[in-house]
C-alpha cells in the first residue's frame, strides 16, 4: 500500500496508549490504511510515548500545566497538529476537554473513543458508575468530537454483558478489548470514505457491522 493511499493521522494520548498500540499494530500489518505522522501527549510520562518511539513514530509533549488557560494550550496544540497536516485527529485516551475553537477547527476530522454506551455515562469513571447504576450491559463508543463532551455523533459501538462478579477493573479490561477492535474499524471506515460528518449528522456510505 503506497503512502499516497494511506490516510495521514495524528494521535493524541495522555496515558497507557493501548488504543494507540492497536492502531499502530493494524497500520503496520496493512489492515488499517493510515500513516501515523505523530503521537502527541499532554503528559510527558505517558506510556504511549514509548510505544510510539518503539514504532519509530515522531512524538511531541505539550504539558497543559505550562499554559495559563485552556484556550492558549489548545492553540499551541493546534499549531503542532497542523504542522503534520493530518486528515484525521484521533483522541486515544486523551484526557483534556477541548475548546470550541479547537473542535471547530477539526470538525468532521476529529474522533474519540469513550468507555461507555453513549449517550449514557459521558465523562469519567464510567466503569464504576455503570456498576453503581446496576446496568446489565456496558460498552464502548467511537464518536465524532463536538463541543458537547462525549455528545458527538456516534460512529460505532460495542456492547458487553455486565456479570454479577464484575468490578470496575474487570469491566475496564473487557471494554478495552472491545475498544481495540472497534477503533481501528471506525478509523478504517473514515479512511475508506465510508462515513463522513455533515453538520451534526453522520452520512454512511455503507453500513458498518460492529
Ligand atoms: N470538546 C470535547 N473535548 C473532548 C471530548 C469531546 O467529546 N468534546 N472527548 C474527551 C474524551 N473524554 C472522554 O471520552 C474526556 C476526557 C477528559 C475529561 C475531563 O473531565 N478532563 C479534565 C481533566 C481530567 C484529567 O486531567 O484527568 C479536564 O479537561 O479538565 C472528560 C471527558 C476529550 N475531550
Ligand atoms: N473519557 C476518555 C476516556 O476515559 N478514555 C478511555 O481511556 C482509556 C485509555 O486507554 P489507552 O490509553 O490504553 O488507550 C480507554 O478506555 C478510553 O476509552
Automatic annotation (TrEMBL):
The active site is at residue 114. One of its GO terms (molecular function) is phosphoribosylglycinamide formyltransferase activity. N(1)-(5-phospho-beta-D-ribosyl)glycinamide binds at residues 17-19. The record marks 150 as: Raises pKa of active site His. SUPFAM superfamilies: Formyltransferase (SSF53328). Pathway: Purine metabolism; IMP biosynthesis via de novo pathway; N(2)-formyl-N(1)-(5-phospho-D-ribosyl)glycinamide from N(1)-(5-phospho-D-ribosyl)glycinamide (10-formyl THF route): step 1/1. (6R)-10-formyltetrahydrofolate binds at residues 70, 95-98, 112. One of its GO terms (cellular component) is cytosol. It catalyses: N(1)-(5-phospho-beta-D-ribosyl)glycinamide + (6R)-10-formyltetrahydrofolate = N(2)-formyl-N(1)-(5-phospho-beta-D-ribosyl)glycinamide + (6S)-5,6,7,8-tetrahydrofolate + H(+). PROSITE patterns: GART. Keywords: Purine biosynthesis, Transferase. Belongs to the GART family. NCBIfam families: PurN. HAMAP family: PurN. This is Phosphoribosylglycinamide formyltransferase. It comes from Nitrosococcus oceani C-27. The lineage of its organism: Bacteria, Pseudomonadati, Pseudomonadota, Gammaproteobacteria, Chromatiales. The gene is purN.
Amino acid at each position: 500500500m503506497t503512502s499516497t493511499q494511506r490516510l495521514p493521522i495524528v494521535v493524541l494520548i495522555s496515558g497507557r496508549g493501548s488504543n494507540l498500540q492497536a492502531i499502530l499494530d493494524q497500520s503496520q500489518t496493512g489492515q488499517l490504511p493510515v500513516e501515523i505522522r505523530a503521537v502527541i501527549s499532554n503528559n510527558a510520562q505517558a506510556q504511549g510515548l514509548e510505544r510510539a518511539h518503539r514504532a519509530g513514530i515522531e512524538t511531541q509533549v505539550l504539558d497543559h500545566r505550562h499554559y495559563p488557560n485552556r484556550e492558549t494550550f489548545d492553540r499551541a496544540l493546534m499549531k503542532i497538529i497542523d504542522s503534520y497536516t493530518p486528515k484525521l485527529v484521533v483522541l486515544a485516551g486523551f484526557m483534556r476537554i477541548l475548546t470550541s475553537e479547537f473542535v471547530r477547527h477539526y470538525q468532521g476530522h476529529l474522533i474519540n473513543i469513550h468507555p461507555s454506551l453513549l449517550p449514557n455515562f459521558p465523562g469519567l469513571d464510567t466503569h464504576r458508575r455503570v456498576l453503581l447504576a446496576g446496568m446489565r450491559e456496558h460498552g464502548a463508543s467511537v464518536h465524532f468530537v463536538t463541543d458537547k463532551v462525549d455528545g458527538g455523533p456516534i460512529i460505532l459501538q460495542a456492547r458487553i454483558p455486565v456479570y454479577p462478579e464484575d468490578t470496575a477493573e474487570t469491566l475496564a479490561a473487557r471494554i478495552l478489548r472491545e475498544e481495540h477492535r472497534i477503533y481501528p474499524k471506525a478509523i478504517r471506515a473514515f479512511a475508506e470514505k465510508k462515513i463522513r460528518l455533515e453538520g451534526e449528522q453522520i452520512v454512511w456510505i455503507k453500513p458498518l457491522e460492529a
